[in-house]
Amino acid sequence: MQARIRFAVIALGAAVLVLGSALGIVAARFDPNAYKSAIVERVHEKTRRTLTIGGDIRLALYPRLGVNLGKASLSELGGQGEFAALDSVRLSFALVPLLLRQEVVVDRIELRGMRATLVRRVDGSMNIDDLTAARVKHPGQQAGAAGNAGAGPAKVRFAVDSIRVDNAHLRFDDRKAGRVFDIARLNVDSGPIAHGVPSRVALSANIGVDQPALNTVLIFESGFALDRDTRRVVMTELDANLDLSSRAGIESRAKLKGSLEIDFGKEAILAALTGKIDDSSVSGKGALRGGLLQLDIDIDRLDLARYRARGAPAAVGAAVGAAAASAPAAAPASAPDQPIDLSALARLRASGTLQVGELSVGGVRAANVHAVLLAGAGKTTIKPLSATLYGGNGTGALSIDFTDDASTPRMALVQDLRGISLGPLLLDATGKTPLSGRGDVQLDLNTRGAGTTALREALAGTAALRLRDGVIGGIDLGRLVHEAKAAAGVGSEAESTSFSELSAHFRIEGGLAHNTDLTASTPLLRIGGEGQLDLANETIDYRLRCTVVPSLSGHDGPAARTLGGLTVPVALSGPLAQMTWQVDVAALGSEAAKKTGAAIPAGAKEKLKDRVKDALGGLFPR
Prior knowledge:
Elements: H1 2-29, H2 36-47, E1 51-53, E2 58-60, E3 66-69, E4 72-75, E5 82-86, E6 88-93, H3 95-101, E7 103-112, E8 115-120, H4 129-132, H5 145-148, E9 155-174, E10 179-190, E11 199-209, E12 214-227, E13 232-246, E14 251-263, E15 268-277, E16 280-289, E17 292-303, H6 319-324, E18 350-361, E19 364-376, E20 379-389, E21 392-401, E22 410-421, H7 422-430, E23 435-448, H8 452-457, E24 460-473, H9 477-483, E25 488-490, E26 496-509, E27 512-521, E28 525-534, E29 539-548, H10 558-562, E30 567-575, E31 580-583, H11 585-596, H12 602-615
Parallel strand pairs: 7-9, 8-9, 17-18
Antiparallel strand pairs: 1-4, 2-3, 3-6, 4-5, 5-8, 6-7, 9-10, 10-11, 11-12, 12-13, 13-14, 14-15, 15-16, 16-17, 18-19, 19-20, 20-21, 21-22, 22-23, 23-24, 24-26, 25-31, 26-27, 27-28, 28-29, 29-30, 30-31
Domain AsmA: 1-211, 293-518
Pfam family, one: AsmA
Protein name: AsmA family protein
């Protein structure tokens, strides 16, 4: 046993001696600067780009045999302008090929302080196409010629075992899409970079984009394989973490797992990912081919309020809700105008589907949301757009058209809501309940503008509602007729009128909703009316005809029993939050006269008026 140990020690010492001697010989005889011109010429021959290496190349023996370069730069194709530059480069070599075959095999690359600019031109071509394209051997070109060109007895071959990148800065100027990506603090540590060889990579970076203004801190690890012939990179077992923020104050975190495939030949990216985005569980597939984005996403629950820009109003995805009763939009008229910039969607080319189990938009809640997206040529359409909400369901479409003016797109909403409970919907959408009841609402609306005020003022289209068992807020018409205490007054939130049925159709122009066929039924009254709502300023101008139901029970009082069938004209005006009401005294007198008798002598009219006053219990002030 001891003999074996002695033999092993002697063998190990001999190996160390041989290796040390070999390294000493290499250090004494190997001059890395002898390969400097060969490397430069090889790069120029292969790429027609100029490689500049500043200063001398220094040999390093520890921790791996290699050379250290100082600052280096690579020109654009043809030598015009700088494409990339580095603060330092370290190339490590495989020792055995160097000693046995005098072949320099680069097996590890370390880059520090790299800076590069990638450009995609308007025609779709890129300034790295020559570097990523498959190499075609030119006539007369001999294999390995570049390795021997210039000087130096050995050939140079790249068989990269690993790459390390520290603190790189990449800029992607996408002139075709009209946006710039900035990748800073990029750190990469990869395994082998070779055709068909499974490997792994770890990466971290700060990624910014100017349109829209977003910044993302990205950390991910993944397995990958490179197919040089098809110019594809396939990433598997990808594990990514993203912290996203925007200048508008939006912040989000995501943790995703899945796979990613990049096809440089077809300019395509394919992804299949699952994970968490903030409080939402997400799964989906996506593809980017030739600038066309395809997405199929499934989300368990999503609250869009957390992604609202800082200071922006609640999104009226309840434009459905607010417009449903032809009521004002969610932001009150007194609120300052809020700019709305959707220009980033003008260049979107996309298609796909979205499924959301539970969705909250501007306070409005929906479930089982299904949407199909189609965007291109300056138009974005979501059709169909369906969901279950507030005890009913809705189907419709939403479109945004940028073709006339990208800064003020035309927006259109078509929605058919069936069997919904309108009161809770309006309360969630606007914080108010001017109207409640269960029934149907149909909307066909369009508008345009760069801010909330302009959108309300430009609102046009049609709306219709049919409700039952609901309440009109702000005024008690039954009490007004029943008690007959005054001829004028101011409504309040504490007052309301219950109805068993209500229907109305609206024609909307310039933010004004016009109606001529309002009908409603209450236990005391049959109501008809016409007028308009100013949606931009939240005001009302309406004329109601409240006809007393002829057959009333005794507890409704003698005045109501006496006036069964009489129509009381009521005018509503002013702000919706505190509208005023006014009984049309002259019209009521004429109505009473018609009810009592057609031909009345002039002298008897005053007596008739007095009788009506008594019956109304003081509706006319004396």
